[in-house]
Amino acid sequence: MARHWLATxxxxxxxxxxRIDATAGEPLRSWLAPLGQxxxxxxxxxxxxxxxxxxxxxxxxxxxxxxxxxxxxxALPLLAVxxxxxIISLIEPAHRRLLLIAFLASSAAxxxxxxxFSAVTLAIGAPxxxxxxxxxxxxxxxxxSIPLLRLTDRLQWTEPPLLHGVDGRALVLGFKLxxxxxxxxxxxxxxxxxxxxxxxxxxxxxxATHVRGTAxxxxxxxxxxxxLAPAAGVIWAGWGRAPLWSLTSLAVVAVAVAxxxxxxxxxxxxxLLAELVLIPxxxxxxxxxxxxxxxxxxxxxxxxxxxxxxWFALWFVVxxxxxxxxxxxxxxxxxxxxxxxxxxxxxxxWLAQHVxxxxxxxxxxxxLATACAWYAVAFGAWLILQAPHRQPALGDAQLAExxxxxxxxxxxxxxxxxxxxxxxxxxxxxxxxxxxxAARGPGDGLTSSSSxxxxxxxxxxxxxxxxxxxxxxxxxxxxxLTGRWAGLVIVLAVTGVVAFAALPLIRTVVLWARLTLSPxxxxxxxxxxxREVTDRLDAVISQLEANLPHDEPGAASPAQPFxxxxxxxxxxxxxxxxxxxxxLVAVELALRQLRDVFGTGSAVYRAAHRAAELTAGxxxxxxxxxxxxxxxxxxxxxxxxxxxxxxxxxxxxxxxxLDAEPEPATTA
Length: 668
Known about the structure:
Number of helices: 25
Number of strands: 4
Radius of gyration: 32 Å
Mean pLDDT: 77
Helix content: over 70%
Structural class: mainly alpha
Number of domains: 3
Strand content: under 5%
Shape: globular
Order of helices and strands: HHHHHHHHHHHHHHHHEEHHEHHEHHHHH
Strand order of the largest sheet: 1-2
Distance between the termini: 76 Å
C-alpha cells in the first residue's frame, strides 16, 4: 500500500515538473493559469494554518509555540525556495523555470510568513490579543515598507505595536529582513522580465511592420471610448429636465448627436493641428491669459499684449519638443482640465453665463460646459491608459541615430509623467466636488481644478527619490487635500509616474550609455554575416519562385503553399512564424550589424539593403494577393527584381572579396 502511494506521488511530482518546464517556455500570459492555481492552493493552505493558529492562540505557552513552529516550518522552506530561485534568475535570466517557481511560491511564502510571525508574537507575550490584530500589524509593516508611496500615511492606516520591548522590535526587524527583501526582489525581477519581453515584442513588431509595409492610421489607432464622453455629458446635463417624450428630450438627443459628431471631427483634425504648431500654441496662450484667475483684473489691451508675449514664449519653449505627440496631448489635457473640470472652472462658467441660447428649454451653454467637462475627464483617463503602451525608439533597428532615439524617449517619458499627474489632478477635483476629499489650509485663491493640480504636482515631486524638490525650493502647500480616497489617488499617481516614466527614463539613459560608450560589436565575422543575409534572402526568394503559378496546365502544386494570415498574431513568438516572416525579420536584424561592419555608404550595404527591400516588397505582394490572378504579373515581376538585386549583392561581395565561393547562376 505504501509503495502504491509513493509511486502515485512520484508520478504526480513528475507530471508537475513537466508542466512547469512546459509553462516556463511559453509566453507570459500562459503563466496566469498556474498562478491562479497557486493562489487557490495558497488560500487553502493559509486557511488551514489559520485554523490551527486560532485554536492554539489562547492555549498555554507550549501550545502557542507548537502552533508557531508549524507555521514556521511551512514558511521557511518557501522563503528559501523564493530566495534561491530569484538569485539564480538574476545571475542567469535564461532560467525561466526557476523564476516561474519563485513567482508561484511568493504568495504562499508571504502569507505563511505573516502567519508565522503573528503566531510567534502571540507566543512571546501577547496571548490576550487576537490573531487578526497580529496579522494586521505585520501586514501594516509590509505595506509601510514599500518605498516612495508612503501608503500607510496617505491611506490613514495605523496599527499599534503588540510588543513594546526589544523582542517586539527584533521581530519587526526579522520580518523586514527575512520576508520583504526576497519578495521585493521577485517583484522587481518579474517587472524587468516582463519589460524586457515587452520591449523585445515591440521591437519585432516594428520590424514586422517594416517588412509587411503596414501602416496604421493615427486616427483609427487612437480612437477611444472617450469620444463618447461629450455626448454622455449632454445626456447627463439634460436628463430629468422634461418628460421623456417631449421636445426638450428630443433636443437633448439632437445636441448629444451633434456633440459626438463634433468631437470626432475635432479629433480627426488633431494631426493637422500638430503640424500647424502655431495654432495650438495660440489657443494655449489665449486660454492661459483670458481664462486664468491670475489675469482676471488685467485690462483688455493688456491681455492682448500678454497673449502675444505668452504665444512667443510658448513658441520658443515648446517648439523643440513639438515633434513628440505626447506634448499636444498634454496641452489639450491641461487646457480642458483647468478650463472645464469643477464647478468653478472659468471656461465652463463663461459658457454657462454667456451662451444663453436655449433649444426647446434646454440651456445650451450649461450643456456644452458639462459636455466639455466630461470630455476632459475621459481624455485624461484615456491618456493614462495609453501610458503602458508607449513603444521605445532608442535601440530600434530601424533608427540609425542613437541621439534621436534618446531625445524622443526622454521627452515622451517626461510627458507621460505629466499625463499621469494631470489625470491625478482630475480625479482629485472630482473627489473634492463629490465630498470625498476635504481641503485643508487657508486657501490659495485658485479654482478647484488648479488647486488639485498643484496638490498632485507637489505630492508626486515630494515622493520621488533623491533630494526633496519642494524642500529645496521651500515650496509648501497652502491648501492640501485629505482623506483616504485622496491619498489613494496620490499613491496611484506616484506608482504610475515611477512605473511608466521614471523607470523607463533610467532604462533609456542606461541603454544610451551602452550604445554610445560601448557600441554593439558584431559577434558574427563579416564573411559569415554577409553569407547569412544572402542565404536568408535566397531562401525567401526561392520559396516565392516555387509558389509562382505555373504556365503549364496540370502542373503540380508547390509542396509548401503560402497561406497569408495576420502577421501581428504571430510576431511575438518565433517558433510559430511562417518561414517567410522568420527569415525576413532575421534579415532586418542582421542589416544593422552589416551597416556597422561595412558602413552605410559601402556598395555591400547598399546592395544588401536594396535586396532586402525588394524581397520584402515581393513578400508583401504575395501576402496581399490571396490567390488573385490579377496580381500574378506584379508578383512575378517583383520576384524577378528581388532575384536580380540578390545577384547584385553577390557581385558586390565578390568585388570586396568577402566570399571565396563562385557566384551562383542567375535565375531568369
